[in-house]
């Protein structure tokens, strides 16, 4: 609904939700209770729209993580042992409540992250779909294999690994949190969630909703705070058996080091520099729509965004020119305005980073086709940036190698499939690739050879929840989605039962 109202109507709708969190501030939620950080420390959370104050946030640290991890540990046996039908029904209830609160969640997420409401309304509903999807699978989560021999019946079962830590980033935080929390709860794990310090608002509402649905205190705990303190302590805590992390590649390696002493199982969804490869025979208009949508939706702050545009030379100039025109037409504006296609970036510090790549691209000799890395006119008060498009990049330029994570696209020409593949694979990342061609043999061959975890052929990024999601190389470790999620949140146990009198060697007889 929020996506069809005017900006003023949305501001009016959002006002009471915003006033409530401004008055109460965000606390930690440990064992079902809203609590201040044990140190009493807080930090201020502001909106990227205009730097206005949203609320204070509890600045949790190791002591709060310890309390939360012990609560999750204490709640684990009962939650893991709950009859599966009950667990399933509780997750359905969470999904229903997310839908009932979708408007509040979408409006607050837009204000907290700067993401346009046209996308955030869908993200809230997607969160509910994630819960419903994994609720449907609660009853099969424990399923295993039957592996009989003539003398033994081997069979496997899956059991929840224990309390887990979920660490989420600032881009689309609500949707990403549900993508981790729903399968962990479905598997029978208990959770300590540490949301990103720059966008903590909807995590509190999600934790509350999970409690409102009737899930017992301690099953999910929320600790706000910074990565170096709260996040680090969570990855080091001995009661926490696994860390599901979404964020930057460098943070992933840090977490691996931090978790080494306690042998943490880790699941990493990290950065990307995803190619969209457009061959001359592609459906020109649909490929153009995809290139624009996959880079400039969600403010370009999207791990699966197509940030490298590889165009076959015969259509290179025409495709680039049309794309530049589309980029110039993009509507940058207040995220609660349903007409806005791009809102402000998450924070001024991120604006500085994205903006700096305009000079880097120019110094390296690429051609600037759209954008200047500055504020659009009239939007100087927030972290708004003009959408940028460079062409004539070479594959080794920094704008063709580094994750910029903003509305910033780099085009590179290529001649033939071999060169396209070489360029596509010539980065450290390997999350997703988009291939556009009518030649099915070429598409299939390339899909097999491109070094990524996910390939979309003649398609934008359409998620199918049972399908595996994740990256290779510096883009991650492990897969989410369907049964793949349970492989992470559960241990597989083999049970072997003798069927008769098999041979047992006699020693010391
Ligand atoms: P980030 O790595 O800076 O932070 C992510 C989370 O990690 C935050 O909650 C932060 O507080 C925490 N953290 C930071 N240092 C930590 C430490 N030492 N120990 C434990 N936790 C720590 O990432 P970000 O800037 O918030 O998010 C953007 C990044 O996320 C981009 O690189 C993007 O590609 C990636 N991302 C990947 C996917 C995917 O599916 N592959 C999805 C979304 C975002």
TrEMBL record:
NCBIfam families linked to this entry: HpaE
Xref: Gene3D superfamilies: Aldehyde Dehydrogenase, Chain A, domain 1, Aldehyde Dehydrogenase, Chain A, domain 2
Short name of any one Pfam family annotated for the protein: Aldedh
Protein family (similarity comment): Belongs to the aldehyde dehydrogenase family.
Taxonomic classification: unclassified sequences, metagenomes, ecological metagenomes
CDD domains assigned to the protein according to its UniProt record, in alphabetical order: ALDH_F8_HMSADH
UniProt keyword annotations, A-Z: NAD, Oxidoreductase
GO MF term set: 5-carboxymethyl-2-hydroxymuconic-semialdehyde dehydrogenase activity
Top class in the EC scheme: oxidoreductase
GO biological process, one term: 4-hydroxyphenylacetate catabolic process
Protein name: 5-carboxymethyl-2-hydroxymuconate semialdehyde dehydrogenase
Aldehyde dehydrogenase domain sequence ranges: 39-495
Annotated EC: 1.2.1.60
Database matches in PROSITE patterns: ALDEHYDE_DEHYDR_GLU (PS00687)
């Amino acid at each position: 609904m929020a996506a069809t109202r005017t900006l003023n109507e949305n501001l009016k709708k959002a006002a009471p939700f915003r006033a409530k969190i401004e008055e109460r501030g965000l606390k930690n939620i440990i064992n079902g209770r809203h609590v201040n950080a044990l140190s009493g420390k807080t930090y201020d959370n502001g909106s990227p729209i205009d730097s206005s104050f949203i609320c204070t946030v509890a600045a949790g640290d190791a002591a709060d993580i310890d309390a939360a991890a012990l609560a999750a540990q204490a709640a684990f046996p009962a939650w893991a042992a709950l009859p599966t039908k009950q667990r399933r029904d509780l997750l359905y209830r969470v999904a229903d409540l997310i839908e009932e609160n979708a408007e509040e969640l979408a409006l607050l997420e837009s204000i907290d992250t700067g993401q346009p409401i046209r996308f955030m309304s869908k993200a809230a509903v997607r969160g509910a779909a994630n819960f419903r999807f994994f609720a449907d699978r609660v009853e099969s989560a424990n399923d295993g294999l039957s592996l009989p021999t003539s003398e033994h019946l081997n069979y496997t079962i899956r059991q929840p690994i224990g309390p887990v830590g979920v660490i989420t980033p600032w881009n689309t935080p609500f949707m990403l949190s549900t993508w981790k929390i729903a399968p962990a709860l479905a598997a029978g794990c208990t959770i300590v969630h540490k949301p990103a310090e720059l966008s903590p608002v909807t995590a509190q509402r999600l934790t509350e909703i999970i409690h409102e649905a009737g899930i017992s205190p301690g099953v999910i705990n929320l600790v706000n705070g910074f990565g170096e303190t709260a996040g680090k302590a969570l990855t080091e805590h001995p009661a926490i058996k696994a860390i599901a992390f979404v964020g930057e590649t460098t943070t992933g390696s840090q977490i691996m080091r931090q978790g080494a002493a306690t042998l943490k199982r880790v699941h990493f969804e990290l950065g990307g520099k995803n190619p969209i490869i457009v061959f001359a025979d592609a459906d020109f208009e649909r490929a153009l729509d995809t290139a624009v949508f996959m880079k400039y939706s969600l403010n370009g702050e999207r791990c699966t965004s197509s940030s490298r545009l590889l165009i076959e030379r015969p259509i290179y100039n025409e495709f680039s020119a049309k794309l530049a025109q589309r980029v110039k037409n993009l509507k940058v504006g207040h995220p609660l305005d349903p007409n806005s296609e791009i809102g402000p970036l998450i924070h001024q510090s991120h604006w500085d980073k994205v903006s700096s790549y305009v000079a880097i691209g120019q110094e390296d000799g690429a051609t600037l086709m759209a954008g200047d890395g500055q504020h659009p006119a009239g939007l100087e008060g927030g972290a708004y940036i003009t959408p940028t498009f460079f062409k004539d990049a070479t594959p080794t330029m920094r704008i063709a190698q580094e994750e910029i994570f903003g509305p910033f696209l780099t085009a590179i020409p290529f001649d033939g499939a071999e060169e396209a593949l070489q360029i596509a694979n010539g980065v450290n990342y390997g999350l997703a690739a988009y291939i556009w061609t009518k030649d099915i043999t070429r598409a299939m061959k390339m899909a097999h050879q491109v070094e990524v975890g996910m390939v979309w052929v003649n398609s934008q990024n359409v998620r199918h929840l049972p399908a595996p999601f994740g990256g290779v190389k510096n883009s991650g470790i492990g897969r989410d989605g369907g049964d793949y999620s349970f492989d992470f949140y559960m241990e597989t146990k083999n049970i072997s039962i003798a069927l008769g009198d098999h041979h047992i060697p006699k020693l010391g007889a």
